[in-house]
Structures are given as structure tokens and as C-alpha cells.
From TrEMBL:
Residues 6-251 form the ABC transporter domain. It is an enzyme of class 7 (translocase). InterPro entries: AAA+_ATPase, ABC_Ni/Peptide_Import, ABC_transporter-like_ATP-bd, P-loop_NTPase. Keywords: ATP-binding, Cell membrane, Ion transport, Membrane, Nickel, Nickel transport, Nucleotide-binding, Translocase, Transport. Pfam families: ABC_tran. This is Nickel import system ATP-binding protein NikD. Its EC number is 7.2.2.11. It comes from Guptibacillus hwajinpoensis.
Length: 272
């Protein structure tokens, strides 16, 4: 067997009306790997993430397996699944504003989250919170003592990422994390996620529309199209030797852009 940390086998999701939203996808994510899941809007990327997190709408029917540490996540109850969130499986969403309650200071919320998952003293949790904030390039004391509305969008998002990473999850799922950020902040966030991955050896599943971003940061790319993973492989292979017509279309949309812009990761420009 491989080094797989998370194995998705033949995952199928059907909506209440009988529409097949995911059609038997397979995916393996290894420890320490940055795996990208790319594909156009509505192809099933976020549903895949939600299945792994156990937060799919109740009315959907799920078949197949999601194996993690010897257990099948598809078979867990909501409550059992919920226990894994945070410490084992972390999530960073595009909509980071929902990560914090508006009228409680960031520091207090960080401490509470850390202490929900680790039995450490308030003082130790405060130290961990300040360290986590500093690592995302924020002014730790200022952010710690601020309410979310006193910070810019990019600062709140970095604070939300600090909170997720302070728990040191084994798998981190990032769903379109840079879409709402400008280029500079998007790059900072990805750099920070990558640094955390290297330090903790966690696996990252990076969901994105942005092929340039996937090229730059991921080790492996899974290409999704209409609920199917049409192709996957090491990033270089997908970049230079892809086979599937949909991947060709995706890659050629990027190739037609000037070279220096390919190296950057602007949001929007490469969106499909
Ligand atoms: N709660 C829901 N009920 C019914 N259908 C849904 C629900 N959530 C998503 N879908 C459908 O499932 C399909 C996949 O949606 P999903 O959110 O996974 O797409 P995505 O690849 O993440 O797209 P985007 O890039 O726009 O975020 C879409 O056709 C969508 O309409
Ligand atoms: Ni999505």
C-alpha cells in the first residue's frame, strides 16, 4: 500500500432529486503532500471537501469510502465526524468572515478554540495564539486585542488561518482561500500555508479555480469535471503531459497568457 493518509474510493453523491453530483471519484492524499483539486464552477470540488468534513446537506445520499486512519468517514455519525474537525481535519474557507463571532475579541476566540481541542492552561493557550498570529505576519498583540470588525478583510483571514493552523491538523482543506484576496495577500496566505505544511508535515487539499496557483504550489493535481476526476498526476505531468481533453482546454487557456503572468497567481485572470 502507498503512503496514503486519506483515501477516497468510488465516492458518489446524489442529490435529493436524484441528480448525480459526484460520480465515483477516487483520490489519495499523502502525508505532507500539497494536493490541488481544480475544475470549473459546479464541478463538485466543494462537495468533495464537505464529504471529507462530514458537512454535506442531510438530504444527499453518499456512497463509497473515505478512509482516514483506518476508519471510513462516510460511516461516521455527524457527532463522530464533528470530533475530528479542528484537530485532525482543518478547514479554511473562502468566506473567512464566518470564522469569528463579531463582538468577541480575536484573542479570546483563539484561546477558546485552542482550549476546546487541547487541555492546556489559559496562559499556554495565549502564548500559542500570539505565536500563531505572528507566524502569519500579523502584529500579534494588536490583532489579539482587536474585534474582527477593527481589522481589514485580509487580516481577519490571516487570523482565521492562524486559528486553524494553531490546532496542527493532519489534513488541511483550503477551499478557494485566495479568491477574495488581492494578489499580495493571496501569495502571503499560500506561503504561510506552505510553511505550516512543511513544519507540521500535514497534508493540504487545495481547492482552486486557478491553474497557475496549482502549478506553483501543489505536488499533485486532480482535475475535476462534472463530478468526475478526469485526470490526476504529479503537477509536472499534468502541466506538460496531460491526456484528457478537458485538461488540455484548461492548460491551453493558461498557455495563451504571457509567460511572466503565468508565474504569478492573480485571482480572476485564470479563473475558468
Ligand atoms: N445543497 C445543495 N443541494 C443541491 N445541489 C447542490 C448543493 N450544493 C451543491 N450542489 C450542486 O452540486 C454541484 C457541485 O457543487 P460544488 O459546490 O461542489 O461545486 P464547486 O466545484 O465547488 O464550484 P465552485 O468553484 O463554484 O465553488 C453543483 O451542480 C451544485 O449545484
Ligand atoms: Ni466550491
Amino acid at each position: 500500500m502507498s503512503n496514503s493518509l486519506l483515501t477516497v474510493n468510488n465516492l458518489t453523491i446524489e442529490s435529493r432529486s436524484g441528480e448525480l453530483l459526484l460520480k465515483g471519484i477516487d483520490m489519495e492524499i499523502e502525508k505532507g503532500e500539497m494536493a490541488a483539486l481544480i475544475g470549473e464552477s459546479g464541478s463538485g470540488k466543494s462537495l468533495t471537501a464537505r464529504a471529507i468534513l462530514g458537512i454535506l446537506p442531510e438530504e444527499m445520499t453518499v456512497e463509497g469510502q473515505i478512509l482516514y486512519k483506518g476508519q471510513d468517514l462516510v460511516k461516521l455519525s455527524r457527532n463522530e465526524h464533528y470530533q475530528l474537525l479542528g484537530k485532525e481535519i482543518g478547514i479554511i474557507f473562502q468566506d473567512y468572515r464566518g470564522s469569528f463571532t463579531p463582538y468577541i475579541k480575536i484573542g479570546k476566540q483563539l484561546i477558546e478554540t485552542i482550549r476546546t481541542h487541547q487541555s492546556i492552561s489559559k496562559k499556554a493557550a495565549k502564548e500559542a495564539a500570539l505565536l500563531a498570529l505572528a507566524e502569519t505576519g500579523l502584529d500579534p498583540k494588536r490583532v489579539y486585542h482587536s474585534y474582527p470588525f477593527q481589522l481589514s478583510g485580509g487580516q481577519v483571514q490571516r487570523a482565521a488561518i492562524s486559528m486553524t493552523l494553531a490546532l496542527k491538523p493532519n489534513i488541511l482543506i483550503c477551499d478557494e482561500v485566495t479568491t477574495a484576496l488581492d494578489l499580495m495577500n493571496g501569495e502571503k496566505v499560500l506561503k504561510y500555508i506552505d510553511k505550516a505544511r512543511k513544519e507540521t508535515d500535514c497534508a493540504v487539499l487545495m481547492i482552486t479555480h486557478d491553474l497557475a496557483q496549482a502549478y506553483k504550489w501543489s505536488d499533485r493535481i486532480h482535475v475535476m469535471y462534472e463530478g468526475v476526476i478526469v485526470e490526476d498526476g504529479p503537477t509536472e505531468q499534468i502541466r506538460f503531459h496531460h491526456q484528457h481533453p478537458y485538461t488540455k482546454k484548461l492548460c491551453s487557456s493558461l498557455l495563451s497568457l504571457p509567460e511572466e503572468r503565468q508565474a504569478s497567481t492573480t485571482e480572476g485572470v485564470y479563473s475558468l
